[in-house]
Amino acid sequence: MEYAKNILETIGNTPLVKINRITKGIEALVLAKVETFNPGNSVKDRMAVKMVDDAEANGSLKPGGTIIEGTSGNTGMGLALVAIARGYKLICVISDKQSKEKMDILRAVGAEVVVCPTNVSPEDPRSYYSVSKRLSEETPNSWYVNQYDNLSNSLAHYEQTGPEIWKQTDGKITHFIVGVGTGGTISGVGKYLKEKNPNIKIWGVDAYGSVFKKYHETGVFDENEIYTYITEGIGEDILPKNVDFEVIDGFTKVTDKDGAVFTRKLAKEEGIFVGYSAGSAIKGVLQLKEHFKPEDVVVVLFHDSGSRYIAKVFNDDWMRNRGFLETEVKLAEDLIGI
Ligand code: PMP
């Protein structure tokens, strides 16, 4: 018999899929590492297990303990799967701008969800930061994950995602392109690949409204770069410890509109139903096309599933209200000409 001893054993070994239509005009082979195939439907399952493994090993997480993290989605889902398999409690602290759907998904997998107001300063006792901190101080036998600065996050990608990509491409990969949030994915995969072949180029996809690109180019943390944006999962207004700028060759920024439009194109033209940051990532590949030679092998990583964005990117009204959808609704009257 062949079976997994629990759901955690099904994490990883995700497929690499050729992009056929969207990349028309690019002669290089473009392959997508589709992380939706993980049981929690995102790449975050990998780092959730690794962070818990390391916390158990160093004694910060003890049997029967409570895991606390400020997360709205993918990391929470990954942590929930580990918590179930290993008998921990999980508290996810999230802001009220997150959709009800996301809260319901976390509750479905047994997490306790604490909702904080978005429009308060970080110092306010009701803020997401203050509440997470207070909960971790007040909850006995608890462990605060902190995916931004917890280096087990990038280590997971150094140990798993990087080697998988190297093996799947038979060492022929020339470019790796991926959205950057905590920096775990790009830094872990980038470090592994550069150790194997220092000529491989590592590119980050950033959002307009985020500090990464400017910081990488100038070494200046420019607060003027920070403003609200819609794209989810990529870009930051802080410099997480998990971003290793040394392994990153450059960043390209993708607009909210382009990210959303290309997420829909991935579903419609490739049959790959993935999340908003995947649209940004594939648009990033197109923006960088002058860097590729015909014989190159370009790998782009898609972080999560389209099902998390049904009410957003995949909803025509949501798209139209933001000016992201140019075609108007076709009314029956228009079609029959009355
Ligand atoms: N896309 C999505 C949907 C994410 O949830 C994240 C994590 N914030 C990222 C991209 C960026 O990945 P990383 O945190 O590893 O940089």
TrEMBL record:
Source species of the chain: Galbibacter orientalis DSM 19592
GO biological-process terms attached to the record: cysteine biosynthetic process from serine
Cofactor: pyridoxal 5'-phosphate
Family the UniProt entry places it in: Belongs to the cysteine synthase/cystathionine beta-synthase family.
Top-level taxon of origin: Bacteria
Name of the protein described by the UniProt record: Cysteine synthase
Alphabetical keyword list: CBS domain, Pyridoxal phosphate
Molecular function GO labels: transferase activity, transferring alkyl or aryl (other than methyl) groups
Signal sequence bounds: none
